Amino acid sequence: MQNVALVIVLAPLIGAIIAGLFKVNRTVAHSVTIGAVGISFFLSLYLFYQIIIAGHASFNETVYTWLVAGNVRLEIGFMIDSLTVLMMLVVTFVSWMVHFYTIGYMQDDPGYQRFFSYISLFTFSMLMLVMSNNFVQLFFGWEAVGLVSYLLIGFWFTRESAIYANLKAFLVNRVGDFGFVLGIAAVLMAFNTLSYTEVFELAKTGQYQQTISIVSGSEWSFITVICILLFIGAMGKSAQFPLHVWLPDSMEGPTPISALIHAATMVTAGIFMVARMSPLFELSTTALSFVMVIGGITALFMGILGLVQNDIKRVIAYSTLSQLGYMTVALGVSAYSVGIFHLMTHAFFKALLFLGAGSVIIAMHHEQDMRKMGGLKKYLPITYWTAVIGSIALCGFPFFSGFFSKDAIIEAAHHAYEAERAGAWFAYYAVLLGVFITALYTFRMLFLTFHGKERMDEHTREHLHESPWVVTGPLIALAIPSIFIGMFTLEPLVFGHYFEGAIFVDEAHQAFHPEHYHGVLNFIGHGLMQLPFWLALAGVGTAWFLYIKRPDIPGMIATRFALIHKILLDKYGFDRFNDWFFAGGARRIGSGLWQAGDVTLIDGLVNGSAKIVDWFSSVIRNVQTGFLYHYAFSMIIGLVVLLGWFVYIR
Amino acid sequence: MTIADLNLALVMPEIFLLTMASLILVIDAFLPKHLQHLSYQLTQGTLIGTALLIVATSPTGRVLGMDGLFVNDQMAAALKFFIVLIGFFAFIYSRDYLRDRNFLKGEYFVLGLFAILGMMIMISAQNLLMIYLGLELMSLSLYAMIAMHRDSQQASEAAMKYFFLGALASGMLLYGMSMLYGVTGTLDLAGLSQAITEVPKEKNMFLVFGLVFIVIGVAFKLGAVPFHMWIPDVYQGSPTAVTLFIASAPKIAAFAMLIRLLVDGMHNLHTDWQDMLILLSLLSMATGNIIAIAQKNIKRMLAYSTIAHVGYLLLGIIAGTTKGYAASMFYVLVYSLMTLASFGMIILLSRTGLEAENINDFKGLNDRNPWYAFLMLILMLSMAGVPPMVGFWAKWSVLIELVHVGMVWLAVVAVLFAIIGAFYYLRVVWVMYFEKAEDMTVIEAGMDMRLALSANVLLILVLGLMPQTLVALCLRAFGI
After folding, report:
1. How far apart are CA B91 and CA B104, in angstroms?
2. If B373 and its partner were Cys, which of A230, A257, A354, B366 is the partner (CB 3.0–4.6 Å)?
3. Average pLDDT of the residues of chain A
4. Which of A616, A617, A624 sits opposite B232 (nearest CB)?
5. What mean pLDDT comes out for the span A525-544?
6. Does residue A647 surpass a pLDDT of 80?
7. Which stretches does DSSP call E strand in B12-110?
């Protein structure tokens, strides 16, 4: 199994190296990388079969020891259990689809090979992250996906806005990663090891330093400090409030990337990480409350922002933020398995929506403004119907995958609310209200794009046609799991024992019990009578009324509630504040230090002393006259000095 | 005395080298013109054979031969091996250069072999006279090598200067030896070491006088200030192929001479020679690093850089511990490899009608040939002592030994001068990477030269990343 794991990880890396470092042509670049990721996908399927169906024990071994310093071991190792194989399947499958799609999307781009190299490198990094069995490798994967994300957001590096966006993503992630690395350091401090299994074992038996004194005089629960620090890392990577600001801007990258990295996989790394660390988080209700409140804020308020966006990709980006908030709430209420369940369904339907948006963008000649679209349904039938599937799944209509995962999250939040866990009431109402918002912005997007008047110019209209099969193929391939994956996996993932041994939940926090499950139909029937379903319907109805029936009303609302509209357009002012306070402040401090410290003090000192040395050098070189007798004379002087030293001084 | 006392097996590398050198001398005289390259190949073959013999005769402890005149120990074997290795590379680098300038003659290689023989004798000498004989054999060969380019005024001038000053230094060394003999009545180093402890107080002055003269003789060969004046002129004036040889291998031999004389022979006078070496070291680091900044000629710059390096090399010996000596040995080996490759780069860029000896000739090297620019970059960073290059480890190891014996002030001063020194090395990097090339001629060189030079620099790079093997070798040489 070790060799299989190694091949899964290394195949995309080799693909990336071949496509990136050797001057190969386009066909070779995409064949190699698609082949490599394909291998990873099928081998992941094989591992899935081995562990889940054939019932082999999960695999946990060290492959290579990089460094041993004292009792700290830095190792590369794999831990492959039910959680890991699920993530591996999602990552490799979506990545594989995106690889195919890219052939069509990047057709005319001069950076074709570079792009394939990056996405394969990303697949490698993400696999390293999820397959890790220790914190160091986790951190490596964590940083590596961040790096590739940075490179890909700025893929079109001649665009000012792309450079701004990738720098922003990088800097915001620095904040999160700072917390994350402190968290890892804290783990090392508390448990004296960095291996998952050892840490979890010690955590379970309570053999660790219980409290830590950060500010002198107050003792804090060490495990809470660790969990919150680790979660700060997840907030950066998974774009949780208030570190969410980079994700909307990351849409500057090519659309396949938005689908792969900024919707389906990388941004869910934080969710995965918290689920993996469930044995730690379960020990700290404070940290869990923190997690659910942050998730609730993100789920509700980022969804609202999606209502006022006009860029089709940005709407989906805000939707991603909101859905990540849902997953975070699930983690916060201890329903880790539900979080991962939603992560999986979301990966499929959100990748589908992004790729669908990409298909629209191709057809519209890289126009992303929905105000210039409309009535595209008849030109792009496949794109339209797959987008409808994605939208319905996102809103959570019965039978579609999103329904099961979202309902389960709301159910779990409700359970926590009834158990009166701190902050749960807020999280519950946030996700409940979020359902309405989700339906509203999703169908607003669908209606504005595909229905209503055709608002594009003549030239664009004439050239409208369905995208090639490399684009529509992945759409269809993603549409199928978007519909069905939920109903088939609901039982094992949420109610069953799928995650046993991989995820740990305190008995008191358990929201779902197998004995409460009476089949998929029963679950749906139960869902139909609940509030979320009717809220979703209301959202769709509102969207229909506002954007099909009476398209004049949205403008009136905007003028009537001008202040609120402005705040929403301003994204609650976070960007403005960050630009002024953090970016601007750092630059002011920097330029102050530069002027006072560097230019005046250091340069003065350095240049001054350099000038003195230079002058001295030009004077003293004159000693070297070139005359033999001078040289001999200097030797004699040396002799006299040395002799004199001994005769007179000593 | 029986033949067994001679322990001839121990001296096999030297005997083999001597025989072959004499043979090549004779063969070369009779070779027809189109077969002249044979003497080059024979020379390289001789060096390979010698190296193999050195490895084969390498002892585990300390073995005496030639009735006590000759000693073979781990240090000797290691140093000799490196000298032969450096000679091998130096001859590869010189061949094209000499051919382009029309004086590719067998004498050059024969003289080179004799110089190497001289160095090997210096390394293994266990007697004052043996040291002197080895030294003279080496020096005389080197004088002749410089003067071989007899139409060149510069080369003749350099040879004359080197010869006169060398004679003066040899005289002083010999004078010092005679004083020691006068006081102790022995020429044998081990005997000397013993006799020094028994010298009565009132005769101590003679000992110290002898010591001063001997230190001067060695300092001259190393090129420590104020006995350094010959170095810039000789480095610049000699044909680059010869400079490369003079600048690298003889320093290893001079180091061995220093160890044999001061450590093996006069360890009891440690406090006396320590002060002298501190003075020489400080002056060398200061003068070398500061004057190098003003140089425009890269050979001259490297000459001053050599002077500075000698200052650092002495630091380990000043520390006076076996670990310190090992650190100095590490330093001198690393220094020789770096210098060899640096002059190799100059040869590489030179061609008929152009001596690439100005720093400006390296302008825009990155545009002309990125690989060579990269090699030179590694060399300059290593010389400057930037981590993780091996030059850094060399400086680090001597400085840490100084700190261990409590001479922190000296270590701090050394670091300060190293910072000043970084300037002129980095200037070369600057012109290579950030200035436009004036001359875009394609750099041509034989495959052997290119491979050897790349291997030489990569060896430096690898040693920087994994210095343990060489460090262990140096430590073993001093029985640690």
Report:
1. 11
2. B366
3. 85
4. A624
5. 85
6. no
7. 63-65, 70-72
Sort out which chain B residues have CB atoms less than 8 A from A621's CB and list them.
291, 294-295
Is B9 near chain A, with CB under 8 Å?
no
Tokens, residue B480: 């640690």
Neighbouring C-alpha atoms within 13 Å toward the C-beta of B430: 7
**Rounded Cα gap, residues B452 and B446, in angstroms:** 10
Which tokens go with A112? 């074709």
Residue of A357, A550, A336, A347 whose CA lies nearest to A442: A357
How far is B407 from B419, CA to CA, in rounded Å? 19
Query: What are the tens digits of pLDDT across the range A22-56?
Result: 878 888 888 889 999 999 999 999 988 888 888 78
Residues B84 and B91: their CA atoms lie apart, in Å, by 11
- The two most distant CA atoms of chain B are separated, in Å, by 70
pLDDT at position B341 is 95
- What is the tally of helices (H) and strands (E) in chain A? 29, 4
Tokens of A314: 């940005």
- B455: part of which helix (H) or strand (E)? helix B447-465
Cis before A242? omega within 30: yes
Distance CA A450, CA A388 (A): 10
Residue type, A264: A
* Confidence tier at A351 by pLDDT (50, 70, 90): confident
Q: Is the separation of the CB atoms in A108 and A95 below 8 Å?
A: no
**Are residues A631 and B294, on separate chains, in Cβ contact within 8 Å?**
no
Whether cis (ω within 30° of 0) applies to the bond prior to B226 is yes
Distance (Å, rounded) from C-alpha A228 to C-alpha A234? 10
Tokens of residue B51, six digits: 């190296």
pLDDT exceeds 70 at position B311: yes
- The three-state DSSP-derived secondary structure of A347-390 is HHHHHHHHHHHHHHHHHCCCCCEHHHCCCHHHCCHHHHHHHHHH
Q: Which of residues 607-646 of A touch B (CB under 8 A)?
A: 610, 613-614, 616-618, 620-621, 624, 626, 628, 630-632, 634-635, 637-639, 641-643, 645-646
Instruction: Take residue B350 and report the two structure tokens written for it.
Output: 């030179």
Pick among B234, B289, B290 to test the A interface (most A CBs inside 10 A) = B290
Q: Look-up: residue for tokens 């790096």?
A: A147
> Is A114 in contact with A102 (CB distance < 8 Å)?
no
Tell the residue number behind the tokens 């005389």, with chain if given.
Answer: B140
Strand partners, B72: B63
Q: What is the ipTM of this complex?
A: 0.85
> How far is residue A85's CA from residue A449's CA, in Å, rounded to a whole number?
37
- Encode pLDDT of B229-271 as tens digits: 999 999 998 999 999 999 999 999 999 999 999 998 888 888 8
Q: Which two tokens stand for residue A233?
A: 């890392």
Pairing of strands A220-221, A211-212: antiparallel
Tokens linked to B187 = 């020429």
Q: With the CA atoms of A177, A183, A185 and A188 taken in that order, what torsion angle do they form, in degrees rounded to the nearest 10?
A: -140
Would you call the peptide bond into B388 cis, given omega within 30 degrees of 0 as the criterion?
A: yes
Which helix (DSSP H) or strand (DSSP E) does residue B264 occupy? Answer: none
Nearest 5 degrees, angle CA A567-CA A366-CA A578? Answer: 30
- The β-bridge partners of A178 are none
| CA distances to A168, A249, A314, B64 from A254, in Å | 17, 12, 13, 76
Find, among B163, B10, B43, the residue nearest to B113 by Cα: B43
Q: Token pair 């880790």 is at which residue?
A: A336
Q: What residue of A is the nearest CA neighbor of B206?
A: A647
Q: Which residues of A60-78 are buried (b: 16+ CB within 10 A; e: fewer)?
A: eebeeeeeeeeeebbbbbb
Chain A hits for B227, Cβ within 8 Å = 634-635, 638
CB contact under 8 A, A635 and B293: no
CA distance A629 to A149: 70
